Amino acid sequence: MKAPVPVRPEPGKPNATRIVLVDDHPIVRDGLADAINHEADLAVCATAEDRAEAMDAIERAKPGLAVIDLMLKSSSGLELIKDVHARWPRLLILVVSMHDETLYAERVLRAGARGYITKQQATRDILLAIRRVLGGGIYLSEKTASTVLSRLTSQPELAGDMIADRLADRELQVFEMTGRGLSTREIAEHLRIDMKTVDTYRTRIKEKLALDSTGDLLKLAIRWNQER
Q: Which pLDDT tens digit goes with each residue over 80-97?
């Protein structure tokens, strides 16, 4: 395991809020770190590309905020959020990811994050999200906030009947990728797991959704993706 990469904050910012960036794309990390370090009261103190590096970086740097991507090198960002929240429950977490917000936003909030923003949004919006979370708020897009609120206030039996609620995090990822037409090999490579594990997740999905065959699973996954 490589050590997390320390980033020296700009001079003259001793009281800046310390931030750890966790993302497996160097260009994304460097670009976001540069934008954050241009803010007078914010400073990136370390970066990491996987779970082990992230946990070590947070332990060493004692940041006020962790910015985490969902897809990391050899690990899941969602599982990392759960681990970080369990170990440092007062540490604020913001997810900055390329993945569909409507699919994952509620899950990251349940895992312990305080906000979700996609990488496609402008840097100023990401900085706004950082400040919202640091200020004690929760950051979601207006559309997703409305959807989450609607789900939270809906009747329990209706919310519980939704596919996303029936599946565990990894199962939902496999289900969603299956609906997008990815092969078993492609899903395994994307999630960095072996193909037998993908098949195991599919078996669990069929059991939880009462599906008789892989064909039924594929048809439902395709329709679910189209209707979202």
A: 999 999 999 999 999 999
CB 40: neighbour CB atoms within 10 A? 11
The model's pTM:
0.69
The pLDDT averaged over each successive group of 10 residues in the chain (228 residues) is 53 82 92 94 94 95 95 85 93 90 82 90 92 90 71 44 80 90 88 92 89 83 78
Give the chain's domains with CATH numbers: 5-148 (3.40.50.2300), 158-227 (1.10.10.10)
At 46, give phi and psi (nearest 5°).
Answer: -170, 155
Give Dmax over CA atoms of the chain in angstroms: 64
The alpha carbon torsion through 201, 149, 155, 219 (nearest 10 deg) reads: -30
According to DSSP, the residues that pair with 19 across neighbouring strands are 44, 65
pLDDT of residue 143: 73
CA distance 48 to 20: 8
Q: Which of 106, 174, 92, 90 is nearest to 134 (CA)?
A: 92
> What ranges in 95-183 are assigned the alpha helix state H?
101-111, 123-134, 142-153, 156-160, 163-166, 169-179
Q: For residues 19 and 28, what is the distance between their CA atoms, to the nearest angstrom?
A: 15
Name residue 37's amino acid.
Answer: N
